[in-house]
Amino acid sequence: MSTVLLIEQLLNGVQFGLMLFLMAAGLTLIFGVMGIINLAHGSLYMVGAFAAAGVAAATGSFTLALIASLAAAAAAGALVELTVIRRLYARDHLDQVLATFALILIFSEGTRWVFGSFPLFLDVPAALAGPVTLPGGIQYPLYRLFIIVAGLVVAAGLFLLISRTRIGIRIRAGEADREMIAALGVDISRLYTLVFALGAALAGLAGALVGAIQSVQVGMGEPVLILAFVVIVIGGIGSIRGAFVGALLVGLTDTLGRFLLPVIFRAFMDPSAATSAGSALASMLIYILMAAVLVARPTGLFGKA
Amino acid sequence: MKLKSLAAAVCAAALATAAQAEMKVGMITTLSGGGAGLGIDVRDGFLLAIAQSGRDDVEVVIEDDQRKPELAVQAADKLIQSEKVDVMTGIIWSNLALAVAPAAAAQGKFYLSPNAGPSQLAGRGCHENYFNVSWQNDAFNEAAAVWANENGIENVFLMAPNYPAGQDMIAGFKRFFEGTVAAEVYTKLGQTDYAAEIAQMRASDADTIYFFLPGGMGISFMKQFAGSGVEKTVMGPAFSFDQGILGAIGEAALGVKNTAHWSKDLDVPGNAEFVASFTETFGRLPSLYAAQGFDTALLLLSAMEKADVKDADAFRAALREADFQSVRGDFAFGPNHHPVQDIYMREVVKEGDVVTNRVIGVAATDHTDAYAGDCKM
User: Fold this and answer.
1) CB-based contact (8 Å) between B190 and chain A?
2) Residue B21: what are its φ and ψ, rounded to 5°?
3) Minimum CA–CA partner of B184 in chain A
4) ipTM of predicted complex
5) What pLDDT, on a 0 to 100 scale, did the predictor assign at position B151?
6) Residue of A nearest to B197 (CA)
7) pLDDT for B92 beyond 80
């Protein structure tokens, strides 16, 4: 195993983690501010990917496709908040889970109805296609570097938004005490719609970015949703910083585990047994990580008790 | 639109003749959710053959399994007990087929598999009422290994999802492959990011990547592989390169070699007509799955010409003869009711604007599966 391979895998882990962050940030924001467990977050990811694929097919422009994914997911998020989520604030989490699960089914079959049952085509733009050579002779796909940069830009933007702007103050205030901020004259229902649309837009952007190197198909959001939940549980529910650290931890653990565990097992097992035992353990690794974090810190790394 | 009118015509024909229908077929297949493209192709191919036969005494009852074993079992109970079907078909996935087909066959129903071919049902678990019209899971991989031996491929990197069908496929390839296996990687079922595996491929000394990743997993892998700049030959069984998927992969799949028993350019009687009529009726090119659905219906119709389904022994004998012109050419059943057929090597090419497959040679002639010896029927 060479250093070059190890560095490439580290980059892969960071890239996977930043993609998860885009999903997890919206999820944790919505839970932190509004107290809603939104299972339909994966559907918003799918909406973003389908909107991007549709616009890219019609116009041929990847930039327009990304804008469309943000707009479509934000619009879908706002619509869902206004029609369904708004009625759930006072209900308990079980009702929220039930209602947002129903939304998954509605979004999935609705998308299938509009776009058909076959996966859509969405390709990496020509300018970002192919590999680049990094210092040290590492060949790395340019598009994955683009995802790393896009993830970091969004993370920085989100930190600034939360810590430096008036909306950010209101979001933090809403998180801390929602009756008080309403009493101070802030239109809380508009704030909620805004937060929900923002979270949805982040999910939609993740869907479009990832859709270009994965499969744009109905049901694509659910596997990512599970990982995003793992991320926010590790990071501490409601914390953006926790989502960032948790996402990188999960991304690195998953990528390095898949790559290193079979190699490590091969040191003391015969190769075929090492491969199957290593693969099996690698797919459990992030859940083991989550369990370990919860044992040490029951509220997650950055969670409030 | 045309799909709807065809389905409506079949339903109307079925309703009009329900009282005297000679044949009632129960079809359980995947029509919603992630894997729906496959089930829809099987259904459309099947209904097209029934409609073209001009027979109005075949009634088809269709149930959606959503790719879930428990729903498939419920649907099977309904079809057997309240619909009282004579023949069942339609299931796409091996795990669903294992849940439904043995029970249906044991209750005296004929089951014609239009896709799944788990090794269990070809070997010890075979049944006189179970007929596989597609392939045994290992078949395409065994043929690919034979082709690899003959074409100077010496060192392969193997990859498949970590579940029974994935292990079957890799086992099938290794059964016949004579070269070196550089690495054997099992991924999570449903995995969408293959960066870690692609990095290992780049670092390995293998000259060829051989993989089985059905559906969306294959789309993700091929797009990421194409962007990685790794220069190695890519091969696999046809499931990652069928017509329904190629549109989503695009040019990243060009040049990939894949094995299948059928291709749309295969020069055998009836195939060109099938491709033309399917394209005209449904507005898309037929996939492997559509061809299998079409053949399954042809087999059923051929048996109906010879025997009444109420006479189970005579009908079984008629099915076993497989006296129909398959769109894949010569077709016969082996002793375990699994196909004996040629398997071709295809290459992904671009025809005009359409990315599709072209036959480049025969990978295995009269290929049969490795499990027939375990079958006591």
Assistant:
1) yes
2) -60, 130
3) A275
4) 0.81
5) 92
6) A259
7) yes
HEC profile for A121-149? CCCCCHHHCCEEEECCCEEEEHHHHHHHH
Domain ranges in chain B? Answer: 2-135+266-333, 139-260+342-374
Q: Do A215 and B216 touch (CB under 8 A)?
A: yes
Assign a CATH topology to domain B139-260+342-374: Rossmann fold (3.40.50)
Q: For domain B2-135+266-333, which architecture applies?
A: 3-Layer(aba) Sandwich (3.40)
Q: For the residues B335-361, what does the mean pLDDT come to? A: 93
- pLDDT for B9 equals 54
Inform me whether the C-beta atom of residue B164 falls under 8 Å from chain A C-beta atoms: no
For residue B290, pLDDT beyond 70: yes
Please report which confidence band the pLDDT of residue B311 belongs to, taking 50, 70 and 90 as the band edges. Answer: very high
The answer to whether B250 contacts chain A (CB < 8 Å) is yes
- Number of inter-chain CB pairs under 8 A, A vs B: 134
Quote the number of domains for chain A.
1
pLDDT at B164: 75
Q: What is the mean pLDDT of residues A251-278?
A: 85
Helices A271-296, A240-266: axis angle to 10 degrees equals 150
B196 interfacial to chain A (CB closer than 8 Å): yes
Do A275 and A243 touch, CB atoms closer than 8 A? Answer: no
Per-residue pLDDT tens digits for B245-263: 888 888 889 999 999 999 9
**CB within 8 Å: A275 and B195:** no
In A35-141, which ranges are continuous DSSP H helix? 41-59, 62-83, 93-115
Burial of B312: CB neighbours in 10 Å, binned 0-12, 13-18, 19+ = middle
Chain B residue numbers with beta carbons less than 8 Å from the beta carbon of A117 are: 31-32, 36-37, 40
Mean per-residue pLDDT, B55-63: 93
CB contact under 8 A, A214 and B190: no
Shortest CA distance from B248: residue in chain A:
A121
